[in-house]
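Hi L.,

You mentioned the student needs an example of a multi-chain input paired with its predicted structure. This one should do, with 479 residues in total across all chains.
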Amino acid sequence: MSHPEFLWRNPEPKPAYDVVIVGAGGHGLATAYYLAKNHGITNVAVLEKGWLAGGNMARNTTIIRSNYLWDESAAIYEHSLKLWEGLSDDLEYDLQFSQRGVLNLAHNLADVREGRRRVNANRLNGVDAEWLEADEVKKFCPVVNASDSARYPVLGATLQRRGGIAKHDHVAWALARKADAYGIDLIQNIEVTGFEMVKNRVTAVQTTRGRISAGKVALAAAGHTSVLAAKAGFPLPLQSHPLQALVSELLEPVLDCVVMSNAVHVYVSQAHKGELVMGAGIDTYNSYGQRGAFHVIEAQMAAALELFPIFSRVRVLRTWGGVVDVSPDASPIIGRTPVDGLFINAGWGTGGFKATPGSGWVYAHTIAHDEPHPLAVPFALERFTTGALIDEHGAAAVAH
Amino acid sequence: MMLIDCPHCGPRDENEFTYGGQAGIAYTPDVDDEAWAGYLFMRDNPKGWFHERWFHAHGCRTWFSVHRHTVTHEMRPQP
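Structure written out for the whole complex:
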């Protein structure tokens, strides 16, 4: 038996590139891909301190949706969702993108009001959204406990039918294969340890495998962005937290949509392979440990059983943690930094996977033109000084 | 789960506490927008030792500071 064809080369770093992207996760790879595809910039290296797509790209719960409340968020996430809808064809790879619908359950009057308001806001922004009454929720997702006897009864739900899930590894591999085919160097096991600057302009990165000159440097390092920014000498309003998720043993198909609940606080979907994939909130303290506490897992399993009594005897197969960079308004930071030629794309916190193609698209534009993409303008770092926050805490249909 | 050494109650389970973030952020009234943004939003986020606050919410309700390593989660009292 021969080894299957490699999807990308494993090149040695060259001494200089036009653009160096730090981080070969989903966002870094998507940025590389769109730099080449949309802007013809191919003298690019993507540097990864671990292995390709082994951080949050390997650890998320793969939920894709765009039903955010605020205009700025709806615009960028909807742009991303539209890209998802063509991405398998575009990348010539089956991403197992499945638009099976995302339910956000309401369990109290405040949830109902918030949900209805968000449905209306979404529709005004061209994002598909529906309000389901409790009996309609029951019809759409029969395994949810929508009975009156539940401790936190389901009073209704928002539904985004175009939302769903995708196979995260396939997304990373497909983006990597295409970026590599454009001649972009994807280099693993290389850590950026510092930046060289001349008159406040970045000129090179120092790495564990030597110095690499760079016309521009683009951070796409998620939970480790603060560490890199500190080396470049500027502060960020980010805090890195553990975010845990878990999967059950493999089951026959039982849940054919994504169910999220803020009030009970868990989100559940069933992966193509058959395991239930669950996640919830962050561990509250700062950490780079890629692990969290068991009581957080216990709370999300309790929430899952509240919603799905049918899962009471399902066994947990595996739990894990990633490091998410959370911003004060739970919205990303995209754009320029205080250092010329050094760009930031961070702060996606607990919800970056859904944004993968949209983030790469606007970030590539921002890097190529030295000017933020129109969709990225509101997400500039300056908003924390001007006060023009995009406050998705509690507005984003999920508790962060 | 971390075992957190409350200065009043001694070592207790993490879920008795709530997290207070970076310690030593002084209130700075009457400053320009940049300094105000710094006070409100900019926080250290080190990979390593971090000076932070905890609140024994389900205990004696004492606020206190510790140094904790953000990779190993090892804690030591404020020096």
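You could point out the following to them. The interface with chain B takes residues 224, 226-227, 230, 235-240, 284-289, 293-295, 325, 328, 384-387 of chain A (CB under 8 Å). Chain A is about 30% helix and 25% strand.

Best wishes,
N.
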